[in-house]
Amino acid sequence: MSVVINIDRLMGRIFELGKIGALAGGGCKRLALTPEDAAGRALVTDWFHALGLEVHRDVIGNTWAIRPDSTGRTDGAPVVMGSHIDTVGTGGLYDGVLGVLGGLEVIESLNDAGIETERPIAVAFFTNEEGARFAPDMMGSGVIQGQLDLDEMLATIGIDGITVGAALDAIGARGNEPVGALAPAAYLELHIEQGPVLEAEGLAIGVVTGVQGISWTEFVIEGASAHAGTTPMTMRRDAGMVAAAIALEARAIARDFGPPQVATVGRMEFAPDLVNVVPERATLTVDLRHTDETVLQQAQARLFARAEELAAQEHCTLARRRLARFEPVNFDPDLVEQVAQSATRLNLSYRRMPSGAGHDAQMFAPNCPSGMIFVPSRDGISHNITEFTAPEQIVPGVTLLAEVALARAGYAQNQG
Ligand code: HGY
Ligand code: MN
Ligand code: MN
After folding, report:
1. CA triple 313-318-319, angle to 5 deg
2. For the segment 102-142, what is each residue's pLDDT rounded down to a tens digit?
3. Backbone torsions φ then ψ of 56, nearest 5 degrees
4. Is this model's pTM higher than 0.70 or not?
5. Could you please report the per-residue DSSP string of 176-216?
6. 398-to-40, 66, 107, 374, 377 alpha-carbon distances in Å
7. CATH 3.40.50.2300 fits 213-326, yes or no
């Protein structure tokens, strides 16, 4: 028997949350720990309370809600279904949200069916998964799972000059549960694929085997401002040109290494940023990813060495700062197999695949059996306001999430 989910109820919640931080052309913007994020947190936390769940919040704002086991207790290690509700600046309605509200739908569907479990089941959202305002990404889940240092993260300064600690307090999101307070028996995350594979292969489900390695670096190049018209090219110390050359090197690395190597320059700023002034300072970020740690190290080494050369050639200085660095993660093979077998039992087409994006699940993987379920993304698009997954594609994902969560939590024997 599989749990019957109420897709209309779930889509209603997805659209309701999507109204918060809604962007003019569609999609939404709820950068971590902004007033928009605070409003989203309040709405979802209200939904947790409305189901009578026991709500907890920790020292960096991670929030989880526990459904008691069949004896009414919530102190056992729960099976956790989680993800995030913060978004990037051009966010869609489904990235992260589907995993949180899908988990809530599983819990409400269990309530509807009167199904009780031997273990507690919980649903959670984690602080600052995106890392767009405050790097690194997966910050909240990294802290509570011991992969990132709490004090270091609270002191992290965002792209707008505010620390994580100050932003937490500005929206009243700091809780009192300590690091390590959430110790799941198993962790499951439903997420949109955010890439083109499932749609291209006509598959319903991605059984995620792991997450590729991530390297985020900020470069700051210092040169000298000069007159754009009077300064001979040989006299320039043009920080902007060094930044542009580093960006082209990042693209060359992806080309030369070939798939699955990817490289992205997401941010680039010049100072004084004026049409007729040679830039004296340039700041850019480079995001490199690969499924193989050794290759990612090679890509990173080439980028760093070339950046030094380019700066020296232009008589500029170069400062480099790590924004994020996570090695590739493999999910628990038994759990991956269980997801695959449940998909087969539900007659769902699927394939095993790694995740190109980072996810909270990778922070739980060293501590408990962790796994992920993907559903297709239209045109493979995400981090874009046109991100879309149809309700009929969501149903299999949530049904499979329920199936695996129940298997891990154990049906209580005294089912009516
Ligand atoms: O960057 C990522 O992969 C994720 O969206 N935080
Ligand atoms: Mn996400
Ligand atoms: Mn994302």
Report:
1. 170
2. 999 999 999 999 999 999 999 999 999 999 999 999 999 99
3. -125, 150
4. yes
5. -BPTT----SEEEEEEE--SSHHHHHT-SEEEEEEE-EEEE
6. 21, 18, 11, 10, 15
7. no
CA 50 to centroid of ligand 1, rounded, Å:
30
Centroid of ligand 2 to alpha carbon of 148 (angstroms)? 18
With a 6 A CB cut-off, is 130 part of the ligand 1 pocket? yes
State pLDDT tens for residues 30-64: 999 999 999 999 999 999 999 999 999 999 999 99
Supply φ then ψ for residue 408, to 5 degrees.
Answer: -75, -30
pLDDT band at residue 416, thresholds of 50, 70 and 90? Answer: very low
d(CA 381, CA 115): 37
| 173 and 41 Cβ atoms separated by less than 8 Å | yes
Phi-psi region of 61 (alpha: psi -120 to 50; beta: other; left: phi over 0): left
Q: Distance of CA 82 to CAs 7, 98, 155, 157, 301, Å?
A: 18, 9, 25, 26, 35
Q: Quick one: which of 180, 3, 176, 210 has its CA closest to 77?
A: 180
Which atom of ligand 1 approaches the CA of 358 most closely? 3
Instruction: Enumerate the domain spans of the chain.
Output: 7-211+330-409, 213-326
Q: For residue 358, report the distance from its CA to the centre of ligand 2, in Å.
A: 7
CATH class of 7-211+330-409: alpha beta
Give the tokens for residue 113.
Answer: 């069916």
